[in-house]
Design a protein that fits this description.
Layout (H helix, E strand, L loop, with lengths): L2 H23 L4 H17 L8 H30 L3 H4 L14 H8 L3 H11 L5 H8 L3 H27 L3 H5 L9
Length: about 190
Amino acid sequence: MSNDEIFAAAYREHYWAVSRYVARRLDGRSGDVEEVVAEVFTVAWRRRSDLPPSPLPWLYGVARHCLANAVRGYGRRRRLLDRLGNDESAHGRQVVESPDSGSPGDWVHEALARLSPADQEILRLTAWEELGVDEVAVALGCGTRAAAMRLHRARRRLRAEIDRSHLTAASAPATLSHDTPKEHGRG
C-alpha cells in the first residue's frame, strides 16, 4: 500500500474521531473545529510517510499541537481586538468558562477544570478518546512509563479535587444534619 493510500485510509477511518477530539477542546466553536481538523490532516498529509500502523494516537498528538497553535492565535486575536477597543460581545465569546450548571456530572467537570491543562489532557485522552496507556504515550510524545505515571498522578489529583469539593459542599448546613444529640452523648 502506498503512503497516499495509507493516508486516505487513515483519513476515512479517523476523521470523525479527530473532529470530536478537537470539538471537545474548543467548546463547540464549529468553524474553529473545522479549521483545526483541516490543519491536522494537512500535517498528516505532509508527513504521510511517518504515519504509524495505528495512526489515531499519532493524529491526536498532531491535533494537540494544532490546538495549541490555534489557542495562541486566538489569544493574539483577542489582544489585537482589545487594543483596537472592540468589545467581546461584538466578536463572540472566545472561551466557555464552565459547563451548564445543573447538568448531571457538573461536579466532575468542575473538579477537572481545577486541574492543570496537562492533567486535564491525559484524563480526557483516556476517558473521552478511550486510549490505553501505550496510545496515550504516542499522543503525548513520551514513553509508556511516563504516560502511566502522569495518568496515575492526574487521577490522584482529580480524586483529591472531587473529595475537596464534596467536603466543601458537605461542611455547610449538611454537617448539622449528621450531628444528632445521641452522637454527642445528649438525649
